[in-house]
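Troubleshooting entry. The earlier prediction with flavin-adenine dinucleotide gave an output that would not parse, so I re-checked the input for stray whitespace and re-submitted. Clean input:
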Amino acid sequence: MARSSTNLDPMALGRSLWQRTAPPFERAGGHFHEAAAEVAIVGGGYSGLSAALHLAMDGRDVALVEAEEPGAGASGRNAAGWLPQYLDRTPADVEKLLGGERGRALNAMIAESARLVPKIVRRHRMQMDMRQSGILVASGEPAQAGAARELAAAWNARGGAVRFTGTAEVQRLGGSDRFAHGLMFEEAGTLNPLAYARGLAHAASLAGARLHCGAPALHLHPAGDGWRLETAAGRIRARHVLIATEGHEANDSLWPGLSRACYRLPMAVVASEPVPALVSRLMPAAVPIADGNKANPLWIMADAEGRLVASLPPPRSDDLAAGAVARHVEAKLNRLHPGLPAIPWSRFWMGHVALSAERIPALRELAPGVHAIGGYSGQGIGAATAAGREYARLIAAGGDPAASRLPLLPLSTVPMRRAVPWLYRHVLAPLGRATDRSYRRPPAAAVED
Ligand SMILES: Cc1cc2nc3c(=O)[nH]c(=O)nc-3n(C[C@H](O)[C@H](O)[C@H](O)COP(=O)(O)OP(=O)(O)OC[C@H]3O[C@@H](n4cnc5c(N)ncnc54)[C@H](O)[C@@H]3O)c2cc1C
């Protein structure tokens, strides 16, 4: 399951900036032969770790098995911004999809996740560069202002804190005369993603959860009134099992059909050497910036040392230097800030974003006592943290779905599971880059606040 960890493999966890800047983590592991727990969790990303932390804080007996180390999947290598929204659904879409009550519950969970992340980091005294600076989602298209205003109002009516910004303010915050309007997600922010995964693991251990690293789960069998989880390091008997492996190689020997439940789309991140002066020019209000262009999205943030970090759709080839991968990011940044100096990009790494058919966070009941969790569609820092806590609430309520704000959905299958990621990388992403005309000139008309 684990990919090679050579330095040439962009999927190797060691390539990410966060490996270099996160505090070290002492892996708990080794063979344990036979163990028992009330809840066994498979996967040490934010979903599994947050579930383990909240269950253990609730006094539950929890064991978590992780194939490699905490954060080895998407959680330790992502682009670092927590942003309380869905990839491509409005709160009203979600209420329509799930029904009013369940939809409102999930929307409230997402809105609240922006406050939950910093609260957990502070409460457990996690050591990391975390800034609740807000995140600006900007646009160069005055015609999209109406939809943006509606989205801000929709989130604000559901517990969010989103401010619509007109042309004058978005240009001040974003430092470029090419922006037309924006949404300021006031409670959003950035953190060191791997430090956060490790911090959750440490906090869960302190709360009493048992973490077994280097212990890939292989099979799950019914046993008495619970389940027997076979792993490479030992077996665990448990009443409840949570499979939290989404975004990583799903394992059909663990549960048939699990890997067909989502697309795993490759996503790239590049980071520069420290460039504090450039960072001040690109983000003059020290607020990270995302743009709303779905075909060729731009995301920029900076770490504590002034390194510029950008995420982007994947390059066609694995075999590229960071500078070559960042060429398209630079092209877009140059439209926003004509005459930018060369940027000393030094790191490029990749991971997989898991996209389910519904593209909303959900629990899937695979059998009585067995659930899979996921569906964050690239917005998992806040959502997976919140989802893990909702699972703990479900267990505390004896399995009553009404106690959890996560919807309980059946295991579904996405069409063309293997073809879509290939098409995305080799056709759709290059097409999106080639046809992206955004920010070529200042907006034709100013938009009021
Ligand atoms: C490049 C990239 C950029 C992203 N940027 C952002 C961003 O800026 N903001 C944001 O909010 N989200 C972002 N995301 C998404 C976010 O990282 C994910 O949604 C989130 O980390 C998912 O957490 P998870 O716990 O569900 O899965 P993961 O973090 O993938 O964890 C799954 C874990 O399961 C383990 N595992 C797998 N199989 C087994 C097995 N059989 N036995 C034991 N363990 C197993 C894996 O080793 C892994 O550690 C990004 C993702 C990527 C890839």
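This one parsed fine. Residues 301 and 330 are 14 Å apart (CA to CA).
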